[in-house]
Design a protein that fits this description.
phosphatidylinositol transfer activity
Length: 292
Amino acid sequence: MYPVSIFRKKNSQNQDNDSSQDAKVSELRAAVGPLSGRGLQYCTDACLRRYLEARNWNVAKSTKMLEETLQWRSTYKPEEIRWHEVAHIGENGLISKADFHDRSGRTVLIMRPGMQKTTAGEGNIRHLVYLVENAILNLPVDQEQMTWLIDFTGWSLNTNVPIKVAQEIIYVLQNHYPERLALVALYNPPRIFEAFFKVVKYFVDVKTFKKIKFLYPKRKESEEIMKSFFDAENLPVEFGGKTSLKYDHEEFSRLMAQDDVKTAKFWGFDCKPSDTSNGCIPEPVSLAPSAS
């Protein structure tokens, strides 16, 4: 058995580390300065910790990163994007939120780059940003990260987004959504994709790169990774699971419209029954007789 003193020492070290990190959070908040409105709502302690973690707890670098995000959010306004504005980009199921979670309860986004029908950079980025914001909105209270499953069925260089667009997407995700990814599963990518990835990987930071996994059917290591993240009963057959996956755009749009109302309420928009400018859709009127 280990001496009690060892456990006391480890506990003391953990407490010191927590205190040091708390101090860094306070230092970062002071460095950013007074905030108001959505900026204040965005910059929770958990948010500041993610920026510090992304920059190895360097306050100066974290401050620069966070200030750039606040500037981006003030102009891009990702929380104001509504499904009806981007639905046409993904009407064939290019990206969708799964109806299951991973083993840790994380939101799962399923991507099918083979379904890509437009190379329009801004449209693709807004569509992805909308779904990332939506995934975050739907995370359990004890989770901060999401999981991505990427199905390469039908993918080719003809359906691929241009390198410049891929670079912009990577930049937005890394710099404005730090520490939000738990796993990016590139499932059964064709060999030709490796050539594309060799180019874009230079835009990916080290921490994000470690979360990107090339996974293949019937390979033990790949199967172990998938099992560690997912229950096979929930996982679609396209990813080695046992359930069927069929994208229903009408149903998905209905769910996204409901989530748009949640988003409006979360960010404090004035959500009136007749107002659809912020995605505030009136509740359907029930025609069923009231219970007596």
